[in-house]
Amino acid sequence: MSVNNKQNMEKTILEAAEKLFLEKGFAMVSTTQIAKVAGCNQALVHYYFRTKDRLFEAIFAEKLKTFFSVIFQPQDESLTFEEKLKKYIGAHFDILFSASLRTVLLT
After folding, report:
1. Are 46 and 55 in contact (CB under 8 A)?
2. Which residues contact 4 (CB under 8 A, 6 or more apart)?
3. DSSP state of 40
4. What gap in Å lies between CA 77 and CA 11, rounded to an integer?
5. What's phi and psi for 30, nearest 5 deg?
6. What predicted TM-score, i.e. pTM, was given to this entire model?
7. Are the C-beta atoms of residues 17 and 59 closer than 8 Å to each other?
8. Per-residue pLDDT for 95 more than 80?
9. Which long-range contacts (CB under 8 A, 24 or more apart) does 66-74 make?
10. I need a labelling partner for 33 at 20 to 30 A (CA). Which of 17, 42, 49, 64 fits?
11. pLDDT in tens, 6-62
12. End-to-end alpha-carbon separation of the chain, Å?
């Protein structure tokens, strides 16, 4: 399997897991269901992520990375506190919106 195919499959599995976690909740989703939505077999899910917990951690880590990249980027010092706060809140809602929009589009 080429590196590109591997990255595509990992991304597909992550997207399928995120969709199912958002729809049903972590406890109600199995790796079998994730594999079915991703279009692969369960062994491949376990090969890339080992456990459902690690799969969730990968999704969560990516969301945190996105969120904190906005918070810790160099700030324009000319912005007021209120403008900075609006920017942070806007970034937070952008993250939430992109996750829910992706769920709707994947359904």
Report:
1. no
2. none
3. S
4. 37
5. -110, 160
6. 0.69
7. yes
8. no
9. 66/95, 67/91, 67/92, 67/95
10. 64
11. 779 999 999 999 999 989 999 999 999 999 999 999 999 999 999 999 999 999 888
12. 28
